């Protein structure tokens, strides 16, 4: 096996679930059950514009909010786009962590915002830079991924969570916390959600993509009732109706006890993969320090610019090693300077969809290219 791995393509490109982790039989059973159950015809009809009510009720109980505070959409990226359409006015700025989720940056820009990145440290954003940025302008919102961040793997510390929520109140801006990886904690203790620290200025977004399957397209948002009402109207005007059969299947997945067992299976599969990547990086690239995540899908490293030049991706491809362009994860810097070079030496390493042997081999090939 080891010999075959040496010539095999290794994709450190997409943060997707492992194919073997997708519970196709359980989903099939749940879909069949809901389609043949008492609500079978209703979930094939238009309706439930804020999302399938039993799912909103289930989430309301989980998050200790009212179902009116929940909007279920077709994946969380869809909800981010709706949020952007509602909150971003011409000329607005949006703050993100630097680096941040590439598709979120693109979405905010497409909706007309200038997206400014606040440097991310190993325990969350640099607060001094954030305060400097806030002294200049108030953003339409600040978008953060506090748990096992995509792409950096960083978890925001409790002190910085508190500071972020205090600043949101003080400067009166929305804090959007995107938490699709939060439940995938392999070690350590969960920290509070930002909404646990500040309910009035926080909008929480999450998704079943990493916890059951991305193709179900079930994501959700929690916010103040009035805000969710306006957003639901916008959703209705744009997509007419959510995908109710998969939302109903998610409810059945929970009620049959599959969610808890599936989550346990995911953790059992992914935890050794995280261990493998951390140990491979420490062995092959001992001089590079990186944030060691306790969960999620990503580890990232920043390598020396001289070693990387403009050719890293092409040289990696020659070794059958596929990497994402680090520049995609970088927004505009706070001083307005040219951002085109930012992130050229930033490497995101999604580890969940690779076996420990592939991870070890991939990091070995990477180390040869960057040192
Ligand atoms: C931080 C983050 N937010 C949102 C998404 C999009 O998820 P969904 O499939 O729910 O649209 C992803 C997907 O990778 C992500 O990493």
What is the overall number of helices? Answer: 14
Tell me the series of helices and strands, N- to C-terminal: HEHHEHEHEEHEHEHEEHHHEHHEEH
Q: Tell how many strands the DSSP assignment holds.
A: 12
Shape: globular
**Biggest sheet strand line-up:** 2-9-8-7-6-3-4-5
Hetero groups in this structure are: pyridoxal-5'-phosphate
Give the radius of gyration.
21 Å
Span of the ends, CA to CA: 27 Å
Specify the structural class: alpha/beta
The amount of beta strand, in percent, is 5-15%
* Low-pLDDT windows of residues: none
Q: Mind summarizing the main beta sheet?
A: 8 strands, mixed
Mean of all residue-level pLDDT scores: 95
Helical amount = 40-55%
Salient structural properties:
two-stranded parallel ribbon; 15% strand; binds pyridoxal-5'-phosphate; 14 helices; single chain; 371 residues
Please provide a written account of the structure:
By secondary structure, the protein is an alpha/beta fold. Helix content is 42%, strand content 15%. It is built from 14 helices and twelve strands. Helix 8 links the parallel strand 7 (174-178) and strand 8. The chain starts with a helix and ends with a helix. The structure holds pyridoxal-5'-phosphate. Pyridoxal-5'-phosphate (PLP) is lined by residues 15, 75-77, 101, 145, 150, 178, 180, 207, 209, 214, 219.
What's this model, at a glance?
With 371 residues, this protein is an alpha/beta fold. The chain has helices at residues 2-5, 24-36, 53-63, 76-87, 102-110, 127-136, 158-171, 194-197, 225-239, 244-255, 258-284, 305-308, 312-318, 356-370; strands at 10-12, 70-73, 93-98, 114-121, 124-125, 141-144, 174-178, 202-207, 219-222, 298-302, 321-323, 346-350. The protein is globular.
């Amino acid at each position: 096996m080891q010999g075959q791995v040496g010539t095999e393509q290794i994709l450190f490109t997409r943060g997707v679930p492992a194919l073997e982790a997708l519970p196709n039989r359980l989903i099939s059973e749940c879909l069949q059950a809901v389609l043949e159950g008492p609500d079978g015809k209703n979930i094939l009809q238009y309706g439930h514009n804020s999302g399938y009510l039993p799912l909103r009720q289930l989430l309301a109980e989980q998050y200790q909010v009212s179902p009116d505070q929940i909007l279920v959409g077709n994946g969380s990226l869809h909800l981010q786009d709706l949020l952007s359409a509602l909150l971003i006015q011409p000329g607005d700025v949006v703050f993100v962590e630097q680096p941040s989720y590439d598709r979120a940056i693109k979405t905010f820009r497409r909706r007309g915002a200038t997206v400014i990145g606040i440097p991310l440290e190993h325990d969350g954003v640099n607060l001094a830079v954030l305060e400097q940025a806030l002294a200049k302008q108030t953003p339409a919102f600040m978008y953060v991924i506090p748990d096992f961040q995509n792409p950096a793997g960083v978890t925001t510390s409790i002190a910085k969570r508190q500071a972020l929520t205090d600043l949101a109140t003080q400067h009166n801006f929305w804090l959007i916390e995107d938490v699709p990886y939060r439940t995938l904690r392999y070690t350590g203790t969960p920290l509070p959600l930002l909404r646990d620290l500040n309910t009035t200025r926080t909008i929480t977004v999450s998704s079943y993509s990493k916890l059951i399957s991305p193709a179900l397209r079930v994501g959700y948002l929690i916010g103040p009732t009035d805000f969710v009402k306006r957003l639901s109207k916008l959703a209705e005007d744009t997509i007419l109706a959510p995908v109710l059969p998969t939302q109903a299947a998610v409810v059945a997945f929970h009620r049959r006890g599959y969610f808890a067992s599936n989550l346990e299976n995911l953790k059992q599969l992914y935890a050794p993969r995280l261990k493998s990547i951390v140990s491979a990086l420490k062995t092959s690239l001992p001089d590079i320090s990186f944030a060691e995540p306790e969960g999620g899908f990503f580890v990232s490293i920043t390598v020396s610019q001289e070693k990387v030049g403009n050719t890293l991706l092409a040289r990696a491809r020659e070794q059958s090693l596929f990497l994402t362009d680090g520049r995609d994860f970088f927004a505009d810097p706070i001083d307005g300077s040219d951002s085109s070079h930012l992130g050229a030496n930033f490497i995101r390493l999604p580890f969940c969809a690779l076996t420990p042997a592939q991870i070890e081999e991939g990091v070995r090939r990477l180390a040869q290219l960057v040192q």
